[in-house]
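> tool_call: predict_assembly(chains=two)
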Amino acid sequence: MVNMIEVIENNIKNAIEKSIEKAIDGGSIQIDDIPEIIIESPREKEHGDFASNIAMVLAKKARMAPIKIAGIIKESLYLEDTYIDSVEVANPGFINFKLKNDWLYDTLRQVQDKGDDYGKVNIGNGEKVQIEFISANPTGPMHIGNARGGAIGDTLSEVLKYAGYNVEKEFYVNDAGNQIAKFGKSLEARYLQLFGIDAEVPEGGYVGEDIKEHAENFKDIYGDKYVNEDEDIRRKALTDYALEKNIKRMKSDLEKFGVHFDVWFSEKGLYDNGDIDATIKYFKDSGKTYENEDALWFKATEYGVSKDEVLVRTNGIPTYFTGDVAYHRNKFVVRKFDKVIDIWGADHYGHVPRMKASMAALGLNPDNLEIIIMQLVRLIRDGKVTRMSKRKGQSFTLADLVDEVGKDAARFFFNMRSADTHFEFDLDLAVAKSNENPVYYVQYAHARICGILRQLAEEGDFIPKIEEVDFSQLKEESEIELIKKLAYFPEEISQSAKSLDPSRITKYVLELAALFHTFYNSCRVKGVEEELKKSRMILVDSTRIVIKNCLNILGISAPEKM
RNA sequence: GUGCCCGUAGCUCAGUUGGAUAGAGCUUUUGAUUCCGAGUCAAACGGCCGCAGGUUCGAAUCCUGUCGGGCACACCA
């Protein structure tokens, strides 16, 4: 649970703050209060390891030239017992800090000491977080958009666990409501058609091949038993049968994709256990509703939403919105999650403000509901955009994707870009040129390290004990840059968790792998002087650990041989 | 019409939440292995950060406007 970067930044912040206080007391700087001190790591190496712009920020308030303020701060900086080696002032007023290499050597000690746990930070404090994603309709197979949601959701969950949250992953099964009714009617039509009965799939129903298959399989089991049954009974039998099959299929497809849910939550269950009625009653009792044309409306406009929302239709059936409000009430009120994260496709964007409004109406803090809107995936095949329509049954499914490009490549790909970017998945590229996929670049780095260590072990050279290593041997630029990157891993987890953006980890591990390859080409591990070899073995092994931790978070295998 | 996302090298995208000379990968060109895994590395080429204003010491980043692409605005989910 140590974040070296955070420790150093706080050290520098404190030193600067004390220095400024001293300057204020001494009258050399005249300001009322000290603003937040920001420490950054400069792009240019000549600018040191860390830098602060505080002098420029203070310039106006203090009515002094920034360069002069920087000089004053530098003069009374207290640097004992820190990693700071030297301080320089640069135009127009930056204060640049150069560190002793000890901070890097201590980083290696930490990586070795923590192993699988290196990178873990505690910003979550064990807070109970629920993350809900995919939640695809169980009326057909999952499509490629669901795959993106799955990869992002699953990886974000792991990031949050690393960041100290108590995470529960959930899939909301829409097994009730209008779509299911249409699903049942579509199945019924296909079933009756098998007996030569002139039945039509309803307007807006499901016309995919999978519906026909369900009907045929159903017929194989039950024959004509349901042909002359009451239609409600017939539809229910067909729906129950097909839903079970579909959900089973989704679970096994997700298993192959490496996504595992802690809870599969049934929408129907909300009707059965009274949560829906309780929610409607709560809204009614608290005066948040009115009736219009026999429908029950929620006064969403009182919460800043542009229009009111229907809770119960004229036909007496609650809307999807009502179900979702009851569902979220269940998350917060019944199951007591501190924080809830939903990952939705951009086509659900319009749903966000009314959900937030309903949380407020329930007396809950809308800020505890975080909604990640994921831009839709466009599928490119033969250089053309292919449209996906689940109802027409012609979509490229999640299962197809895993079969064609593999779990590792698919998960890596989806996590290369943040959720809010439009994403084009070029199948031809991913399939035909899968060897060029960056996932191999990272996995290769891992396998390469394992290869080196394997060979050394065969020659009797094992990873040395930390106490026996003289880290000051490590001073080549490629070594320093690599260790620096390792030092940033916990900070990367922290940033990734705070911004709810798992793609940072993918970008990080790519850069880490690149730095390793650079190191490999300029420095040797085998065949160099003993002390240097020992310290490089630690460096290489530490790199292996961090790459592996990243790949674990991403849900991607870390092969020892390729 | 209203709201949201995107616009950065020929292509795909980063850009540490306002910092110093805007970076990778692919493509093209050139080079590197008697030695730990060449699925690798090094270098070169490549830019009006969509456009126009504004905010300030400082803008790809924030604000306003504008153009282009995508998505959403149901008694659907």
